Amino acid sequence: MARINAKGHLSGAVGPVYFRILNGKPIVQSKPGKGNVKQAAATKAGASEFGAASKTAKCIRAALFPILQDLADVTMFQRFTAAVYAAVRANTTVTKGNRRLADGDLSLLEGFEFNHNSPFAKYSSLSPQITCLPDGKLAISLAEIPSAEAFKIPHPKASGMELRVMVTAVDPHSGMFVNDESFSVSTSGSSAVVPAQAWTTAILPKGHLVFVTMALRYYREDRSAGNIPLNSRELHPCRMVRAFLTGE
Question: What is the pLDDT of residue 42?
Fold first, then answer.
C-alpha cells in the first residue's frame, strides 16, 4: 500500500508499480515480486547455460593444446566459446539451462579456424576422408596429390612442412580428455608428390565427444639442430575438420 508523505509524494506499492523518492525526486519502478519471477528464471537459466558452454570450450581447448600450443590468434578463445554455445543452442528439444554440447549440433564446430591470421584453406587444399568403422575405430585417409597443389609454403626460410592430424576424445561429463592420437606426413620443397596416407585410430570410448583437428607446421632444416619450427601467432594454419559424439 502506498502512502502520501508531507510533500505530497507517493511512497510504496500501488498495483504492479512501486513509488519511492530517490535523491529528492519521485521514482516509479516495476513492483518486485511474482511478476518478475519468470524473467529472472529465464535469465538465470541462460547465464547458467552460457557458463557451462564456456567451461566446456575451455576443456576442449586444453585437450587440443598439443596441436594448438600457444599459436592461435588472440580472438580464438572468444570465438571458440561462441561457436560451442551456438552448437549448444541449436538443440531446440531441451529446455534452456539443461542443454549441453553432447546434445547439440556438433557439425557447427566443423571448419572452425583456430587462427584467423592464417586460415587453413589458404595454405592447403587437403581434405581427408574420415570414416567411423564398425569396430569403434576411426579411419582417416588422404589421396596422393602433387605437393604444389597440396601445400603452400609461405615462410621464406621454410625448407619443409608437416601436416599433423590429431584425434581427441573428451568425456562430456567431466571434461577430461581420455584419448589423444596424432598422425603426420612431412614434405619438403623438393618433393613432387605427397603420397597417399591411411591411418586408423585405437577404439574410441563410447559416449565421448571426438574432435579431429588438422594443422600445418613449417620448419627449417639445420644439420646441427634438426628441424627448427617456424610457426607463430601470425602463421599457424589449424582447423577442426570433424566433431561428433560416439555411440553409447
Answer: 59
